[in-house]
Amino acid sequence: MRKKEIIAMILAGGQGTRLKALTKNNAKPAVPFGGKYRIIDFVLSNCANSSIDTVGVLTQYQPLILNAHIGIGMTWDLDRKFGGVRILPPYQHEAGGNWYKGTADAIYQNINYIDYYNPEYVLVLSGDHIYKMDYNPMLEYHKEKKADCTIAVIEVPMEEASRFGIMNTHEDGRIYEFEEKPKKPKSNLASMGIYIFNWNKLKHFLKEDQKDPTSSNDFGKNIIPKMLQAGAKLYAYRFYGYWKDVGTVESYWEANMDLLKEDCPIDLYESVNKIYAFDYSLPPQYIGPEASVKNSMIVDGCIIYGEVENSVISRGVYIGKNAKVKDSVILPNVRIEDGAVVIKSVVGNGVRIREGIRVGDGSEIVLIPENKDVKENIIKG
Amino acid sequence: MLRDYMGVILLNEDESNIRSLTLNRPLASIPIFARYRVIDFILSNMVNSGITNVGIFVKTNSRSLVDHIGSGKPWDLNRKIDGLFIFNYTLKQLVQEDINSFKYNMEYFFRSKKEKVVLSRSRMICNIDLEKIAMEHEKSGADVTIVYKKVENSDMFLSCDVLNIKDGKVISVGKNLGMGEKINVSMEIFFMSKEFLIQAIYKCIQEGNCSSVIDYVYRHVRDHDVRAYEFDGYLGCINSIASYYKVSMDFLDQDIMKELCSKNGYIYTKSYDSPPTKYLNGSLVTNSVIANGSIIKGLVSNSIIGRRVIIEEGAEVINSIIFSRCIIGKNVKLKNVIIDKNTIIEEDKVLIGDDKYPIVIEKGSRIYL
Fold this sequence. Notes:
The complex is a heterodimer of chains A (381) and B (369). Chain A is 19% helix and 29% strand. Chain A has helices at residues 40-49, 64-70, 103-108, 111-117, 136-144, 199-211, 219-229, 249-258, and strands at 6-11, 32-33, 37-38, 54-58, 84-88, 92-93, 96-97, 121-126, 129-131, 149-155, 165-169, 175-180, 189-198, 234-238, 243-245, 285-287, 292-294, 296-298, 303-304, 307-309, 312-313, 318-319, 324-326, 329-330, 335-336, 341-343, 345-347, 352-353, 358-359, 366-368, 373-374. Chain A starts with 5 loop residues before the first strand and ends in a 7-residue tail after the last strand. Chain B has two domains: 5-262, Spore Coat Polysaccharide Biosynthesis Protein SpsA, Chain A, CATH 3.90.550; 278-367, 3 Solenoid (UDP N-Acetylglucosamine Acyltransferase, domain 1), CATH 2.160.10. In chain B, 22% of the residues lie in helices and 29% in strands. Chain B has a seven-stranded mixed beta sheet with strand order 5-4-1-6-11-8-12. Strand 16 (285-287) of chain A pairs antiparallel with strand 16 of chain B, so a sheet runs across the interface.
């Protein structure tokens, strides 16, 4: 029988409440990012660039845009006969049906999908992280260590460590303890939410975990501690590079601004390992006769007559004459009319900002929800 | 929707006045307007009008075209039923003759369930509603309907075909000499039944008078019911460096750009997954059209910049067209220049062309001191 060595499962069902209005009608992984992408494009492109051709995407919350975006996976070369991308929502079965109760439950409910490909390894990923990574060296490391589970970790500043899931390891990388948001962290190795499991081992622990009615069926809270307790071999794999969890409006804005830095920590411009995004067939961008664009990113379908500085402008955005956009992230199809001023804001899909209106004053990030018609000044978020 | 039509695109086009851009590619795949190729326009017009079966008869040097079109995915032409057919040039044929290309591929016409044909070339750049014309064509009962446009700048349509029209019927067809008078330039878009096309091909072969179907139609306008349909939108013809440059500069006009890119549907093209274009702190860009993936540190004015172009600090690009993946070095000055793909212009170089006859730098060149 044909089989796959490794398949990926992307957790994309979270609501992302901390992104507030950005996820009102949209799943967090499908929130537009960096001008032409959606957040999930990064992890899907990582899979494509790591030659992982079988990917299950676990969806639950507001999946319409996400489903349409992923489609049959053409964008990431994941339209395959054997393998490819599958969208996996919760479903009804003989004994009824349930929502995905937690990250581990989502995988548990799709054991049949994974078994169909009979893989050695399962790569569990989050659909809402911004990073570029080749998963192959991590898989090599996993095999070399003869691990049951390998977890990618990244060094974070010690003072921020208490915001993350922290891995305490022996010198050889073996994990002896996992602490979720520890008050007094013993190490600064944060879990990136990237796991490689031996499928047989994982299946066993998923089934055990289901028997425990008190479990919240979560990888970090339940599966990893249970594996450690049972003496399974868990290893930490160090990742050096840019990685960001865009969980809040602030971190979303920051991650967009990171792309504008002179020494941008994530290279979008190399001609291999591209980040692939849905192509909307829009005309090229037009910069008008009196426009001024400084330190910004702009994409197809934009028409700019005004001033843009330190900003990320998404497709189909119109910026009128004498309008000014500074330190902002403008999502697709926004219309900023003549003379309007937008400072340090995140402006949602399809928003219209009327002539001469002021949004934001640079002190805190202002978030304008999608399709809003802004007729009055909005200075504070 | 034109469910009953098949599209046929003939690429044996005259390239004698646009040689420097067709050294490595057919005219149909010359890059245009920063992110498109010439053929994207007619192909998208066909698809937007509902045509799902398109046969492209290519000529020599088709690598670039085949690479661009691929399986027809961007146009939704990668299909089991109908879809895209590319008919390659073979050594048995003379380049200028399309009759032989047809002759060896007659099966394509017999096999398709479609009863009618839109026949076209690629070089006429427009965004046109073919469905509307097809309805007119069918209502009129004509054997052939030819689309034309009344133009005044005939010098931009050199050696194009000119229709002499009386009461909506074409009475003769001549060549444009470009003397600046008002002419009815043929847009080389023909509506006819498949039966008519097949008979025309047979007649060309049997009688030996014509070597191309288009030629056959032109010469026999009085023997058949051949009518003209006037198009009133923007039309550009890519058949010389001068017209390529003029049409490209026209594109900077927002009304023309909007019409060409979206009036009757979007123009589709191959996606390169280029990142957003980055404008750095020292950049100064005005009245320009720019594709994704470029990095701009210098000055760009009245210009068209393709994908993944790098324009270094102090460089000035004025009234110029830069194709994809070029590098314009520090303090380079360019004015009225067309720079083909993958070219590197090294620091401090100055290139200035004429505003009607720009300098063309060929693909993959390296210009250094």
